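Tokens for chain A. Residues wanted.
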């Protein structure tokens, strides 16, 4: 598999990592074996509903402030470890953590944001694998600009290369026409706590 840089967004590389059958098998395996959070997270001492379910996996000693709010951190499973190794080979990047997001249907979403937390370093690269229902990955320049929408079918790997997080925001916006679930895995390199 080769990742191709998008002509309209040169900091994004995209390609098909798995065919439909492989992607479907992996989707069902991960869906069944992942201990999802309860749909809530804590921030500033308050409890908020999360419009999707999540689970965090990382190397020992890797703490990520965002993931700490989830209270749902785990050691790598054999399936996720093998997947990380495959994505590292294809992307040419190294990762020590992955955030799994389960969008139960088109109502589940993530709003506009950039993955630019200090824990990720000054110029993070993130690899995002989509499994299950096709959803649109929306991007817009920072500050507010016109959005572009990229459909991500099951088995698609998208890599956000530096300095994507500094110049773009991204989202998976609600789409009530989507009924089946989508699983998204975002592989990251988190700096160890000092």
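Reply:
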């Amino acid at each position: 598999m080769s990742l191709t840089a998008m002509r309209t967004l040169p900091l994004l590389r995209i390609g098909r990592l798995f065919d439909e059958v492989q992607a479907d098998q992996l989707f069902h395996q991960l869906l069944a074996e992942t201990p999802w959070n309860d749909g809530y997270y804590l921030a500033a001492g308050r409890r908020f509903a999360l419009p999707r379910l999540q689970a965090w996996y990382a190397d020992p000693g890797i703490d990520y402030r965002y993931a700490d709010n989830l209270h749902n951190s785990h050691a790598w499973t054999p399936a996720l470890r093998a997947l990380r190794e495959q994505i590292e080979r294809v992307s040419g990047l190294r990762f020590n953590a992955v955030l799994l997001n389960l969008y139960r249907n088109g109502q589940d979403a993530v709003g506009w944001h950039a993955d630019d937390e200090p824990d990720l370093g000054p110029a993070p690269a993130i690899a995002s694998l989509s499994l299950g229902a096709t959803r649109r990955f929306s991007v817009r320049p920072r500050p507010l600009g016109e959005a572009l929408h990229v459909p991500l079918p099951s088995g698609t790997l998208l890599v956000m290369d530096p300095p994507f997080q500094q110049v773009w925001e991204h989202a998976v916006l609600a789409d009530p026409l989507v009924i089946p679930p989508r699983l998204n895995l975002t592989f990251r390199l988190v700096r160890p706590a000092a």
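The chain has a mean pLDDT of 89. Residues 142 and 168 are 5 Å apart (CA to CA).
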